[in-house]
Amino acid sequence: RWVFMNGEYKRKEEATVSVFDHGFLYGDGIFEGIRVYDGNIFRLKEHIERLYDSAKSILLNIPYTIEEMETAVVEAVRKNGLRDAYIRLVVSRGVGDLSLNPDSCEKANVIIIVDQVRLFSKELFEKGISVITVPTRRNIPDALDPKIKSLNYLNNILVRIEANRAGVAEAIMLNSHGYVTEGSGDNIFIVKRGVIYTPPTYLGALEGITRGVIMELAEKQGYTVKEQPFTRHDVYVADEVFLTGTAAEVISVVDVDGRKIGNGLPGPIAKELMAEFHKLVKVDGVQ
Ligand code: PLP
User: Fold this and answer.
1) Cβ(259)–Cβ(251) below 8 Å
2) What is the atom index within ligand 1 of the atom nearest the CA of 182?
3) Is the pTM here over 0.90, yes or no?
4) 281 partner at 20 to 30 Å CA-CA among 24, 39, 97, 198?
5) If the chain, 287 residues long, is cut into consecutive pieces of 10 residues, what is the mean pLDDT of each piece?
C-alpha cells in the first residue's frame, strides 16, 4: 500500500505523523471516506466539496485547490492498483506546539489512504442487523455542527463501544430532545405505509452523501421521501428501517431495542433501493 502524504507517496509502514500534529493532540482536522467500485470513485466531487466545506467552517486552509485534490485522490487510487477500495482522506491542522492555538501550526497535513473496508458481512446484508439506541447523545448544531466531518469522533466511538457491549452491529443516537439522529457512521431511514422518512440534518446528523443518493434513487423509483423528525417509537413501529453510508452502503435493520421491525426480515423497499444502489455505484463515478 502507498499512502499519499503532502504530495509524496510513503509505504504504509513509513506513513507516520508527528506527535505534535494537532490532529493527534486535539482532533483538530477533518476527513472523508470514499468508495471505489470497479474502478469508479463514487461521488468524488461531492466528497471533496464536503471536505472543503468542513475546512472552511473550521478555518482550516487546505494547501491544494479542489482540482488538485481530486487529481491527488485519483492518482492515489491508481498507484495502489485497487479496483474496489475505500479511500480515507484526512486533513489535519498540522504540526504545532503544545498549545491548542492553531496559529502555531504552519501547514495542514494532507493524507490519502487507499485500503479495503468491510463493515458488515454478506450475511448481515442479506439478513439485516439488530441495533440499539444508546444514552450517548448526538450534538445538535448549537455546538460543533454535525455537518462538519471533523476528527472529533468520540461521540460516535462511544456509540460503537455501546453497540459492541450489547453485541449488536450498530447503534442509533438520539439528540438531547429525544429525536432520532443517525448511527455511529451512517444515516437512518424508516418506511411507514410506503412513505420513506429520514431525519432532517438540523436535528444532529451528518449530511450523508449516500443518504442523498438514496433519496434521489427512491424518488426515481416513485417513492415519496420526507425529511421529518421522528422518535424511537416511530422507529419501533416502522414497516422497514435501514441505514445508509459510504462504508455501510444500504443495510436493513430488523430489530431495534428488541422490537422486531416488520416481519423481522429486510423489507421490500430497502431491498429495492439496495439493488438500485449497487447498479448505480458501478457506472456512476470518476474513472
Ligand atoms: N453519519 C456519520 C456520523 C458518518 O460518519 C457517516 C460516514 O461518512 C455517515 C453518516 C454517512 O455519510 P456518507 O454517506 O457521506 O458516507
Assistant:
1) no
2) 1
3) yes
4) 198
5) 96 96 97 96 97 97 97 97 96 97 96 91 95 86 83 92 96 94 97 98 95 98 98 98 96 98 97 97 78
